[in-house]
Amino acid sequence: MTKYPDKYNLTPQQSLFLAKKRWDENVYCGMRMENRNVTFPQTKTILEGVNVPDVQLDDIQAILNMRDAWKYLISSASEPVTLAYMCKLNEYIARNEAFEWGKLRTGRVGISGTDYIPPVPNYEEAERELQEIMSRNITGTEKALDIFLWGARSQLFWDGNKRTSLTLANKVLISEGAGVLTITDKFMFEFNTLLLEYYNTGKGEKLKEFLYNNAIFGLDI
């Protein structure tokens, strides 16, 4: 019996309804993961197309980038999970935030708060690793969690790695009718603590279990 059974079994229509209902919360989650100084009301107002004068322009850009990534996700929920698809998500998410987006990085990067230095990615190897996760005989929920952990620690792109991995994990959940993955403010500190531990050790089971217990949401029908 799997340790991570699907909590939800939604129809494609129910799954898309959930995605459209909670996408603003997921955009806000992406902002908080990057420690951007915006509130949920500010995020929601910007997503509604209303100017919020107290928010920095680069934060507004990041919110609109996540908006566009989610629009793309919702319109392409039935497409296969590939590295090319992940690159497309990053193209939206990291637009104008790095000198290059939508392409794997070609140089070394560091991660704040940790000594871990992720290796420079290789396209074929990254595609193989992603497809290995997708081919496992596990639930859609566990695949999504594994993809988030893999993408976050691999740091495939120059910027937006956590947000890209979160969005790709949600693409898997939505495609499988298994809910959505969102870290709320209540759990953000513990999430960041466990994420740093995972970066340092490469052992992600505690983070995976934490996300399963606290960050999977759906429709109770």
Can you tell me about this structure?
With 221 residues, this protein is an all-alpha fold. It has a single domain, classed as Fido-like domain (Fic-like fold, Orthogonal Bundle), CATH 1.10.3290.10. Helices cover 59% and strands 2% of the residues. The protein has 9 helices and 2 strands; from the N terminus they run H-H-H-H-H-H-H-E-H-H-E. The chain has helices at 12-33, 40-47, 57-75, 83-93, 123-134, 140-154, 161-176, 185-201, 205-214, and strands spanning 180-181, 216-217. Strands 1-2 form a two-stranded antiparallel ribbon. Helix 1 packs across helix 2 (40-47), helix 3 packs antiparallel against helix 4 (83-93) and helix 6 (140-154) crosses helix 9 (205-214). The longest helix is centred in the first third of the chain and has 22 residues, at 12-33. The chain is globular, with a radius of gyration of 16 Å. The model has no long low-confidence stretch (mean pLDDT 95).
